[in-house]
Amino acid sequence: MFIKIPRRGDCRESEVIPEALYLNRRQLLQGSMLSVAASGLPVLTRADEGRYAQVDAVDAPAWFDAKLDQAHWEAVTADGESITPYRDATHYNNFYEFGPDKGDPARHAPKLVTEPWTVMVDGEVTNPGRYSVDDLFSPTQLEERIYRLRCVEAWSMVIPWLGFPLAELVRRLEPTSNAKYVRFETLVRPEQMPGMRAGFSLIDWPYVEGLRMDEAMHPLSLMAVGMYGRVLPNQNGAPLRLVVPWKYGFKSIKSIVRISFVHDQPATTWETMAPQEYGFYANVNPHVSHPRWSQARERRLPGSLFKPNVRETILFNGYADEVSHLYAGMDLSKDY
């Protein structure tokens, strides 16, 4: 199933990359965009050679290149801002396994070996086992999702991801009726992740995140292996990460090596470390401040000292029409 995001969940028109950048490195299509998928999304014949400008040329696994040929590309139109430049999206990151500074992941992550890569699936599930990324993606087509990314630190980006709905993977793995949550773990490899050896390492590794089952099954929840028409850079969570656009960015766990289906709500990393600051749900909410700063406004990257690009924060990061029903009857000031 391919998702057409409606109304308030849509990125605004200027969030879509300008046409000149979209086409400038090479003619995008060898032929022309002739057909529209039954879902309503445009199907392009090839994007790896020219869809995005100023994107690093990187080697991708053969399975990724093969799937890129048949990817479904989504152009979401509206008004107000542009897609975050590739360099900002890849050089301003929180990935504490590589260090506490925003530039540490781009400096240190290229040393991370991401092939081969396997993901352990266990818990309350019919099809447990150890799967390669190719195994997880082989039955699916890649699709592009242009999503807002809102950090709990009150900065934000707009990023075009490549992946497939998490719900598709969950259905294939067949969790049992006892599974109420999905728990995710990030890789632990201190020899390639210097942040794990640093003094900052107050984190009890591995990094852990989780979703309630209905959140995991929501059509917006994405398993991503690429961005900007290319394979994921290491600093952005290669080779496999989660993207949950209505939640603060720390919920979108990177470099996943384990997916567990569990009955009880998992103890997630930031909630365990500072429960008064970081709740399990972590839904973007301008009405619930962090104890040390307001969440009412955010700084959209890129910006500068004289043009900070500050804007109002939108409930559920602009996806309220799609996801608010998941939290009907809940007090979001307590279940934050």
Question: What's the topology here?
Answer:
Blueprint: H1 19-23, H2 62-68, H3 86-91, H4 104-108, E1 118-123, E2 129-132, H5 133-137, E3 143-150, E4 155-165, H6 166-173, E5 181-186, E6 208-212, H7 213-216, E7 222-227, E8 230-231, E9 241-243, E10 256-262, H8 269-273, E11 297-300, E12 310-312, H9 320-323
Parallel strand pairs: 1-10, 4-11
Antiparallel strand pairs: 1-2, 3-4, 4-7, 5-6, 5-10, 7-8, 7-9, 11-12
Structural descriptors:
disordered N terminus, globular, seven-stranded mixed beta sheet, alpha+beta, 15% helix, 19% strand
Structure overview:
With 336 residues, the chain is α+β, with helices and mostly antiparallel strands. It contains 9 helices and 12 strands. Strands 3, 4, 7, 8, 9, 11 and 12 form a 7-stranded mixed β-sheet that branches. Strands 2-1-10-5-6 form a 5-stranded mixed β-sheet. Strand 7 and strand 8 form a beta hairpin.
**Element-by-element helix/strand order:** HHHHEEHEEHEEHEEEEHEEH
Beta percentage is 15-25%
Over the alpha carbons, how many angstroms does the gyration radius reach?
19 Å
Class from helix and strand fractions: alpha+beta
Describe the structure concisely.
The chain is an alpha+beta fold and 336 residues long. 15% of the residues lie in helices and 19% in strands. It is built from 9 helices and 12 strands.
